[in-house]
Amino acid sequence: MKKIGILYGEERSFPMAFIKKINARNIEGLIAEPAIIDKAIEGGDSGYDVIVDRISHRVPFYRAYLKNAAICGAAVINNPFRSSDDEIFFNCCLASKLGITAPRTVIIPSREMPPHTAPASFGNLAYPLDWEGIFDYIGFPACMKPLSGGGWKNVYRPTSREDFFQKQSETGQLVMLLQEEIVFEEYYRCYCIGAKKTRILSYAPQNPFHLRYQVDFNPPVERLERLESIVLRLSHYLGYDFNAVDLAIKEGVPYVMNLGNPFPETGIDELGKENFEWVTEALAELAIEKALSAERRRDNLTWGAFITSAVTKQPLA
After folding, report:
1. What is the DSSP string of 142-172?
2. What is the rounded distance in angstroms from the CA atom of residue 168 to the CA atom of residue 174?
3. Kind of pairing between the strands at 197-202 and 176-180
């Protein structure tokens, strides 16, 4: 019996709809269910051919469990080794190497020392940093936010050198990103499944959460095709089976604002019925495809062209 499990947190509408959609197909020898963990033993088979992960970014126990399940042959959506290492600065670097426009970005060391460190731990870090070079490169106003992401928490908009240092004093042990401010005319959240299927959604990040999808920029076909091309290319390199990419339009130019979101929202109340149905159907089809082709005791993960090109010594293209 082939089994597809889904690991989730407080959300209910998507996991239950996902399970129902797969089981409604009545595929002989295939079943979907909530992933149940009663023990996690090293090298122990999870019992699942596919596990869809919706919560391990918040629960370290689940992340460790999924890595073990992957080693034993489960096709985890998304690859837990890849999503564990995901962070915004690397993604901006990848976009730069791929020739995709992103905001100018630098990383700023934490204002306070991390735990278990001392001043001597930072002997390789120049003091002071080349603040003038950093500020000349980024410009003001700018956007400052945590390297680790975290939605819209701890996000600042420094308007000058003095304002930057005042706001930085509030960031504690957070490593921060300082980015060029992009004053956009349009903004899109682009869902991508299997690095093959995309859905481009108009999005208003400045709106209250429940109203962010309640906009329609009505983009022309040429713009949709351009956005889709960027999203597919990024997802191909990142190696995400389920991803959301944020793209802002400024003076006709798409800027990638967030390359990787391996845990995008899937709630029907946020996405609306039509988009919810598309995401559920597309991910169910991918999970079924992976389950039917998965082979126990071998690697069934998606790694992405960034990793595979490194293994084969091929340049990024």
Report:
1. EEEEETT--TTTT-B---SHHHHHHHHTT-T
2. 9
3. unpaired
Q: Give CATH for domain 104-180.
A: 3.30.1490.20
Q: Where does residue 144 fall: left (phi above 0), alpha (psi -120 to 50 degrees), or beta otherwise?
A: beta
Q: Per residue in 166-212, pLDDT tens?
A: 999 999 999 999 999 999 999 999 999 999 999 999 999 889 888 89
Does the domain at 2-82 match CATH 3.40.50.20? Answer given as yes
DSSP reduced 3-state for 190: strand
Q: Which amino acid is at 85?
A: D
- The three-point CA angle 221-227-229 to 5° equals 100
Amino acid identity, position 94: L
Helix (H, G, I), strand (E, B) or coil at 233: helix
Residue 291 to residue 310: CA distance in whole angstroms: 27
Segment 149-165, tens digit of pLDDT:
766 678 999 999 999 99
Beta-ladder partners of 77: 52
Q: How far apart are CA 112 and CA 94, in angstroms?
A: 28
The Cα 26–Cα 22 span in angstroms is 8
Enumerate the domain spans of the chain. 2-82, 104-180
Give the Cα separation of 240 and 262 in Å (integer).
Answer: 7
